[in-house]
Amino acid sequence: MASDEDADQPQRWYGTNLVGMPTHVLASTAFNANPVQLSIAGTREAHPGLFSLLNGSRDLDGARDMFAHYLLVAFGLRKPTKHELASLDPTEQRRWRSSWRKLLQGWGMDSNGTAGAVLKGWVESRFGMVPSFHKSVLARFPSEAWMTYLQEKAASRHHSNNIHQQLDLLYEYCQWALRRFPPAAGSGQSAGHLRLWRGSNRYEEQISAGRVHDRRCTVRLNNLVSFSLSQEAASCFGDWVFEVQVPLCKVVVFPGLLPGQVLQGEQEVLALGGDYEVMARYA
Predict the structure, then answer these.
(1) What is the DSSP letter of 18?
(2) Is the separation of the CB atoms in 99 and 166 below 8 Å?
């Protein structure tokens, strides 16, 4: 809970969460240096069949097909045929549109769109981390920027099909995959981390300690952010590139995790934000 003097300063807010880790710890550089496994309470217990199936898979190709098929059946995500649509009421006709895939595709096109707001709202709900940016800086509350974010994250067209539960399963599946098929340790990569990069043109408002020109500094990233697997790919998104060690437990989506085209960038990794110690380079 924020103190009275911090009540209008969202960057100091921390909420409750469903992962059993104090949010201020989860968002800290100390946690990134010494991460622990996270799990969204009740998710695996509510879907034991999915993880039983996954445990029988021999490779990630088979696992991702199992995951997509399970959610297709469990949440009715198959698009109805014209004949089936005719027998449904208008609400049910729209139900299939609310899916994890649509949200990720929306994020890939514009992380500051409605889909992005819903995903940031999910992070808020499950991990307690408040966003710092949506279309513009989410500074003092209340403000026009905050009202826009709050309206978009509650958009009814994305909340008609247990969308948060779908995203819970996506996160748990991702964590299962990273433990079952761990990524090869690359050069400069710490144990339990992915070495990733992020391009930025707005570094001044992200610095929370140190100076970017000193190369090593601490940045405060949004509660959900995209990273790249290579420095070259990240340099397309900003003049400054941050090299980051992202804990595996903060990864939500990585390349190859899901079937079909989901995110726009082939090398895009979606992960939880917070404070990160980075190595900064001018692209």
Answers:
(1) S
(2) yes
CB-count exposure of residue 20 (10 Å: 0-12, 13-18, 19+): exposed
Rounded to an integer, what distance in angstroms lies between the CA atom of residue 251 and that of residue 247? 7
In what helix (H) or strand (E) does residue 189 lie, and over which residues does it extend?
none
Query: pTM higher than 0.70, yes or no?
Result: yes
Instruction: Look over the chain and give the mean of its residue pLDDT values, rounded to a whole number.
Output: 87
- C-alpha 70/C-alpha 61 separation (Å) is 15
Distances (CA, A) of 165 to 2, 88, 168, 195, 259: 28, 24, 5, 29, 19
The CB-side HSE value for 135 (13 A sphere, CA atoms) comes to 15
Give 128-152 pLDDT, tens digit per residue.
999 999 999 998 888 899 999 999 9
Q: Which residues of 138-175 are buried (b: 16+ CB within 10 A; e: fewer)?
A: beeeeeebbebbeebbebeebeebebebbbbbbbbbbb
Alpha helices, DSSP H only, in the chain? 23-26, 29-33, 43-46, 48-55, 60-74, 82-86, 90-95, 100-109, 114-127, 144-153, 163-180, 231-234
The burial of 69, by beta-carbon neighbours within 10 Å (0-12 exposed, 13-18 middle, 19 or more buried), is given as: middle
Residue type at position 36: V
Tens-place pLDDT, residues 193-214:
999 999 988 766 777 776 767 7
Q: How far apart are the C-alpha atoms of 221 and 168, rounded to whole Å?
A: 22
Which is nearest to 276 in space by CA: 244, 228, 252?
244
Determine contact, residues 14/122, Cβ cutoff 8 Å.
no
DSSP bridge pairs for 281? 241
In degrees, to the nearest 5, what angle opens at C-alpha 31 toward C-alphas 26 and 33? 155
